[in-house]
Amino acid sequence: MKREDFLKKLEEMLISQIKIKINHGINHDLSNFSNQQQTNDVFSEKWSKYSHSQEKELLYEFQKKWYLELYGFDSEESLRGFLKNCDVIFDAGCGLGYKAAWFAQLAPHALIIGMDFSDSVKQASLVYQDISNLFFIQGDIANTNFKDNSFSYVSCDQVIMHTEDPEVTFIELARICKKPRGQVACYFYAKKALPRELLDDYFRSACTNMTNEELWAMSQQLTELGKRLSELNISFEAPDIPQLGIKGGTYDIQRFIYWNFIKCFWNVELGKETSIVTNYDWYSPSNARRFSENEVREIVKRNNLVVDFFHIEDACYSGRFINSSSELSK
Ligand SMILES: C[S@@+](CC[C@H](N)C(=O)[O-])C[C@H]1O[C@@H](n2cnc3c(N)ncnc32)[C@H](O)[C@@H]1O
């Protein structure tokens, strides 16, 4: 299909028309909710800094590999095979758009739309303007402006917990996903040990009064802490402390503190800038809900979706959920 045909298809999916210039349109660029607006602002800040980083290609490769694990694809080929059967794909909360561009490259027959509430979509639309089946819209994924049953695949990777009300967002993602048999792939932050949860909540609210300079400085300090702990290269056997949600086992000291007390991310392979951005990403947005496994399964069930694949790791729950029946779905 030519770009004009993809564009026509996109316009037919919209409830109210917006102006698409080359590959970019705007539903809304401001939120009425102060926490969502603060979250948008810090992500705009994060992406505008990180888009110039030399390290970003490394992160993109790491993220793509992780994506395959998170959503149950054995390899890139298996994702390509899955996308073969999808004609319209949504990257909900696409950030700098590299996953949307990946989908567009793996599924050249399909229309791909990336949406983000932050200014990142402006950068994404410039970087990827030559990909004819890829478009970006700035807007709220909880209020997408797409008609019911628009997408065969809705991918919402590492985003939903940053939206104002994740339950409302999930309802919207299920609504725009095709019935029957469209799929929603979604990632939810997991609740961690009690000391880490308490500190995260306290810290996050304290962070809302910090300037961006202070937030970056703190992220740098947390990265340095992670690096120094990691360089100690000490492992030890931690006891189970179920009352605090601390799981026993053999830990590297940095990982033990990271999972149970404070996020001090450090990854030598990904590099210093990426580690700093990862720490900034954690404490700066006001919206950052965490979930238990049960809460995730309930949200999926309430929306009449059926689990096709479910993945659990310390950081998150993720999976692919099928919109199984038009009668059951809202
Ligand atoms: C951690 S980043 C993940 C970006 C991308 N999915 C990736 O995996 O690289 C979270 C993104 O969600 C976006 N976001 C948060 N709330 C949103 C909302 N209500 N609508 C659209 N995007 C939102 C942020 O602007 C940010 O770019």
Descriptive account of the structure:
The chain has 330 residues and is α/β, with parallel strands linked by helices. It folds into two domains: 3-190 and 290-323, Rossmann fold, CATH 3.40.50.150; 194-283, no CATH class. The chain is built from twelve helices and ten strands. It has helices at 3-13, 34-50, 56-70, 76-84, 98-106, 120-127, 166-176, 194-207, 212-232, 253-260, 272-283, 293-302, and strands spanning 24-26, 88-92, 111-116, 134-138, 153-156, 183-189, 235-238, 249-252, 305-313, 316-323. α2 (34-50) packs antiparallel against α11, α9 crosses α10 and α9 crosses α11 (272-283). The longest helix has 21 residues, at 212-232. The mean pLDDT is 95. The structure holds S-adenosylmethionine (SAM). S-adenosylmethionine binds at residues 36, 39-40, 43, 63, 93-95, 99, 115-118, 120, 140-142, 157-159, 162-163, 281. Residues 36, 39-40, 43, 63, 93-95, 99, 115-118, 120, 140-142, 157-159, 162-163, 281 line the site of S-adenosylmethionine (SAM).
